[in-house]
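Teaching assistant here, posting this on the class forum so everyone can see the example we discussed in section. The complex has two components, and the goal was to see what a joint structure prediction looks like when all of them are supplied at once.
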Amino acid sequence: MIIKLMVNDKMVERDVDPTKRLLDFLREDLNLTGTKEGCSEGECGACTVIVNDKAVASCCVLVGQVNGDNILTIEGLEKNGELDIIQKAFIEKGAIQCGFCTPGMIMSCKALLMKNPKPTVDEIKRSIEGNLCRCTGYTKIIEAVQQIVEERCNNE
Amino acid sequence: MKRIGRGIGLSFYGTGYGNGFPDVSRAKVRLLKDGNVGIYVGGTEVGQGARTIFYQIGSETLKLSSDNISFITEDTSLMPDSGTAAASRQTYNTGNAIKIACENFMDRLREVAKRELKLNSTQGLKVNNGKIYLEFFPRKVISFKELAQKQKGNVIEAEGEFVAQTVEMDSETGQGAPYWPYTFNACGVELEVDVLTGKVEILKTRFAQDVGRAINPHLIEGQMDGGFAMALGYVLFEDLNINEGRIKNQKFSKYLIPTAMDMIDLENVIVEDPESTAPFGAKGVGEPVMIPIAPAILNAIYDAVGVRITELPATPEKLIEAIEDSKEGRVVKHG
C-alpha cells in the first residue's frame, strides 16, 4: 500500500505494509532511530511521537492508520541546528541520565506545551505519567518544563 | 480513616568490591599530536555521569581546561581496564586512577621540559594551563603544543593505577574491615496510611547523603532523586511475583514502577566531609542513596498504624491484613 504522510515537516511516500507498526516504519524505513522501543505494549512511553498534535505510543499505532497524518519525532525538534527549548531545558536541568526515556519524554512534554503553553506542575506530571523513567525520579524533568513556563511568564 | 506517621532510616554503605577482593582501576594519559591531552580510561558512562566526573578530576589535576582534554573511553583495545561501573566505585576508584595517572604524566612532562629547556633539574617546574614553566623564572617556558611538535615519533605518556585497600573478613568471627570508604545516609519521611484501603501516601521527606566532597552537586541530586524513586517503588509496589521459578508480573502493567504522579517534592541534603583517600575527597553515591529509604518508610508505617511489615513490598493488601491482625491481638509476622 502506498502511504503518504508528513514526517518532521517533510512529505514521505512509501510503498509499505500498512500493518507495520509506526515505530518500525520510523526506525527501519526512515532510519529515524531517535524513537526508542521499550515495552512494545504502550506502557512505558519510550516510543512516544506526536501525531496531529497528540502524543501517541508509536508501538501501538499501525502505519496504515496514520496515512495522510502529520508526524513529529524527536529528530524534527531541532531547527536550523538549534535545539528546541525543551531539549535545551533538559540539558540545563540535568533531566537526562541514561537517556533511553528521553526522546519519548521530550515528545510528551512537547505535546503538552503545544496545547498548553503554561502548564501547572500537576499538568506537567499528568502529561508524562505514561513515560516511565528509572534514573531521574522525574524531578529534574518536571523542573525543566517548569523552567520553560517560568521564563514564559517572566517575558510577558 | 487516615493516620499519619513519621519514621527515619539510617545506613552506611561500603563502596567498591570489598572484602579483600582485588579492586583495581587504571588510566593512561598521553600528550596528543595537537598539544591536547588524551585520557584513556575504561570506566563506563551509563548515564550516571562518570565521564563528567572524570573530566573534572582530569582537568583539576592537570590544571587544564576540559576543552583541551579528550576522553577516550570504553574501548578495551585502546585503554587499560578500570573495572566495572558497579559497586558505586567509579568516582572513587577510577577517579583516583585518573588523578594518579595525571600526576605521573605531569612528572613525565617536567622531565621532557627539563631537557628541552636545558635545565639542571625538574625542581621548580610548574604545569599550568597547557604550559610548563620555571616558577621563579617564567621566561623558561614551553607549551604542550610545542612539546608535542618537538617529540615527533616519541610519545609522552604515563599510566596510573589505584588499588582500593580492603581487608578480608575473618570467616570464623565475621570481624574485619571489608570496605573502604563508607558513605553515610539518612532519610526521614512523613506519610499517611489509609486504614480502610491500605494505601500509603508519602507527604514529606528529607533525605541526606554523605558524599565526601560534592565535586558535581547537580549529578549527585540526580542520583538522589532517582534513588528515592527506585526505593519508593521497591517499598510500596514493585513485586516480581515469582511462582515456581516464573515471573508472573512480567509487564509494566503488572510490575508497577513509580511514575511522575507518584513523586513528591524531595528535600535533598548533601553532606560534605572530604574523604582523605578519595580524589579531591569525593566518594561514590550510586547505590547508597537508596538504602535508608525503605526502613524510613516502614518505620513511619509502624508509627502510623502500629504494624511491622517485614517483607517488601508493603502493598495495601498486606497492610490491611496486618492492621486487622493487630486489632485482634494476633502477633503475626507479615511477610
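For the discussion questions: The domain at 2-14+179-327 of chain B is CATH 3.30.365.10 (Aldehyde Oxidoreductase; domain 4). Residues 90-116 of chain B form the longest helix (27 residues). Think about how each of these relates to the inputs above.
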